[in-house]
Amino acid sequence: MASPDKRRSVRHRKTPWWRVHEQVAAVFERLFQPLEALVLHDVRRRDIVGQLRQLDVGVLDTLSGEQEVRALVEVQKRKGSVGLADLGNWIYKRDTLQAKELVAISDRGFSRPVLEHAKKLHADGLRLGTLHETEGGFIERINSTCLGFVRVLDIWWFVSIFVQYADVDEITNVNLQGLDTEANVFGTTSPMGLMRQMEAELGNAPSGTMHVCMTEVQDASLRYEGRPLKRVLITAEKQRRIWEPVTHFYTYDEVHPNRGQRGIAIVSTFRVDQSRTGKLILVISPDLENITGNYAKVAGQFEFSE
């Protein structure tokens, strides 16, 4: 019969397929904007006539104290390329928000008229780029690859817990059903606290085998259900979990005003522990000026999935 920990499943709300591109674009923009700029995903700001406008990614100027829009990033994740109508709408939004820069990112690229207009009319204040999924992470200009992340975690699974009371010669078991093993059920410590104490005294217990932890209580500090204890006997197995994540790789290429790879993104969803799932977005961009000293700039964000 499988243990409760093995049977437990993690439920989380799946991020819409198009929103991942926005999140990745927001993390990338932190590398491309000044350090004092505040980059926010899915933000709303009012334009010069008072209309509330939605920005896939908003870059706010914090120096003025008013958090004015410095740049906006529009991310298109559709079946077709960006056309002139899309570009015109975004430029109008940029101008009415009085922003200095528009960044347009497309999964399917840009139509020829868009590229021609960008080249002839928008040498400044407009940046075009593509963001699309690839098979693996490869950064061209620093000749490096990234394959993703693996989560290795040792978890104690409690088989039984028995306590012997000090006031009378009585032994009883601790009900494990729904027990929080990190809770101080023994007054000043928890079952996990006793296991950590055992490992501190005897060394790291190897995973894959059953272990017995017997604690002789020297004073009245440990109690269970209000009664002083003489002994606590715990039988537990240390189980190793190797959780390989679901990892997707994206390449970010600039189309205008310069052509070339701007970096890669790794979006990795994996189990954090028995009850939580996390998502890590990590972006890596070549540091051509070698400001960081390692020829690459890195930014990232982590969030727990519901």
In short:
With 306 residues, this protein is an alpha+beta fold.
Give the SSE layout.
Layout: H1 4-7, H2 19-32, E1 37-46, E2 52-61, E3 68-76, H3 84-96, E4 101-106, H4 112-121, E5 126-134, E6 137-139, E7 144-146, E8 151-165, E9 171-173, H5 191-202, E10 210-216, E11 223-224, E12 227-243, E13 246-256, E14 260-271, E15 277-286, E16 296-305
Parallel strand pairs: 3-4, 4-5
Antiparallel strand pairs: 1-2, 2-3, 5-13, 6-7, 8-9, 8-12, 10-12, 11-12, 13-14, 14-15, 15-16
Task: Please state how the strands of the largest beta sheet are arranged side by side.
Answer: 1-2-3-4-5-13-14-15-16
- Architecture of the largest domain in CATH? 3-Layer(aba) Sandwich
**Rg, nearest Å:** 28 Å
Count of distinct structural domains: 2
Content of β-strand? 35-45%
- From the N-terminal CA to the C-terminal CA, the straight-line distance is 28 Å
Overall pLDDT level:
87
CATH third-level topology of the largest domain: Trna Endonuclease, Chain: A, domain 1
Largest sheet: 9 strands, mixed
Helix content: 10-25%
Helix count from the secondary structure assignment: 5
